[in-house]
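Suppose a colleague, Dr. K., hands you the sequence of a protein chain of 351 amino acids and asks what its three-dimensional shape might be. Before reaching for any lab equipment, you can write down a predicted structure in token form. Begin with the sequence itself:
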Amino acid sequence: MKPWNYLASFSIPFFAAIGLLWGGSWAWLTVAFVFVGVPIMDAIVGCDKQGIDKAVSKMSPGDSRLYSWILYWHLPVQVGLIVLSGWEWNHSSAPVWVRAGWILSVALSTGGIGITVAHELIHRKTKWERWIGRLILMTVLYMHFAIEHVRGHHKNVGTTLDAATASQGTNVYAFIVYTVPAQWFSAWRLELERLKKLGLPIWSWRNEMIAFLVIQLLWLISLTGMFGWGFLGAYCVIAVLSFGLLEVVNYIEHYGLERHTLPNGRLETVQEHHSWNSDHRVSRMLLFELSRHSDHHMAADRQYQTLRSKEYSPQLPSGYPGMVLLALCPPSWFWIMNPRIRLSRESAQSA
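The predicted structure, expressed as tokens, is then:
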């Protein structure tokens, strides 16, 4: 897609801001757009398996800079949305049902869009881009994801060693309760292993987990100083819903897909049948091609605009917003997805 297609991602924080400023039923605009509007548009517009646009594939690093600048701008937008939330929370007499809409709407932006942008940036080769991603994660109190996802999940995906891979039959709620603390402890273990190789102690100033805790604490102190303890509780709910949404997406991306042990005792390499994919065009625009997930795992440094639809990747029946709703209803999820796991295995064997 052309760069301007991905400007659609700004619609989510924009709608969330409209809900904050206008109040009333507008507070639920973002929720309605994400979980009603986008699935309907995905169904109407449909899928597009087209490969990389020729113009995109021939772009030099300088020419493709606009794709990256769209990502960078999400950091100030995310911070601005949270600040606006704090201001409206303290200066409005809105009833509980409106405030609930605010919380859900902001979380859909900070978790659905913000974390997706952070996910793209923490894979970048330049340190300053990775730090933009980390600062976005700071705004939802999930900076350790930058360690565990890159150094843990991508190595262990599809195995019992990966806390972000849900086994078949696990419902999304049990998965979230398990994966959130498991990934945090995994990030600590990975960081301690790195420090040990460098001959550094746990309390080293180079311990990124300690640095992340300090940065996030300073962020919380700043928010409390600006908006008081009343908003801090609401903000923490926003943060929990944000990274909870991330983990629902993790659940969707790898549910029931396993890497097998080869006759030589080694795990098979990560292949296209180890991630669920969706080529639904509308949600792809909103989420920076995240749903072309197989190609991302096979080439983690590939930038989002060049991700490809893989021929043998298992396909989801809807885009991510629709699949999130389905995952939140486990009986329906199992009924639809478990047969697809069997078909995926058969397809992988015949490929």
